[in-house]
Amino acid sequence: MSSDNSVFLLLGPEEGEKEKFIKNLIDKLSGKGNEIVEVHRFYGFDAVIADIISILQNETLFSKKRLVILNNMDLITRKEDISLITEYCSNPASKACFLLLSETIKGVNSRIEKVVPKDNRKIFWELFENQKRGWIVNFFRRKDMTISPSACNDLLEIVENNTKQLRLECERLVLFFGKGAKIGSEAIEKYIYHSKEENVFTLFDKVAQRKLDIALEVLHNLLLSREREALQILNGLLSQFRKLAALKGLIAGNYTLSEAFSRLRIKSKRVQKIYLESDKNYKAAEIKGIIMLIAEFEVRLRSVKSNLQAFLLNLFLYYVIVRGGKGAWRGGPG
Fold it and tell me: Full-prediction pTM beyond 0.85?
């Protein structure tokens, strides 16, 4: 393997395109399936960098080629760990590929950025709204299905901002309606509220009602599906609360409900009803506190092992629904 293809730095929030890049790289390393590539995944909050470097440098009996993925590079801050990584990247193993990943753009230590070849530093930006709509239309066209512009908007209201989650929801829609279907706004609403699948928006629905027991049940189902990671759930709720804060601000600025919903592109009557319910149940100061609380819990989720993340999310919902943003680490709104 060329040393130019031994280390990559993959930044940005667009998880779907990032995963496609990794898949293509694995296919290339394996010679399109002719060789076995040993893949290892690690996360910055609990990674032992010395062990990772050892895996990269030493061949195994089962495979000569290794691909090591280190997520959450923005959490790697210890000088010793940074030195180990930069030393390895300066002289990488010939039969190993090291992928350094972060959802952030600027959070990775500059020493690590500099040691990765310029052509191997890639940023995966979030798609623009029109690009997301085009992605959805093309996805269903390939399945011999159609989706209306309004249904596209409704789908984008409930899906986190990356093509990985878009693909997941679109594949569920294919299974729900079947090939050849024509999907409109009513169909999206039927899927969201009448299918047995939970999503971040059905969780927000219960949070909006301030029903802790039901919200915890929805959260439990989301985590059991293993298709939603804790950070993705938290980011999905952040998106909804930011939109709620914007709605409250527009209403306070004497915009009519129709004008406010139009500005925020909230067109579904069912979704409008949920936002009105949350507007009634949460004060502006509470929403501000909740958004700050999400930032605090994001840091804590990144710093603990995965088996503790469910507990933290349960605690987070308690502080949101019962205490209105007053967390364990801050006073919250008065």
Answer: no
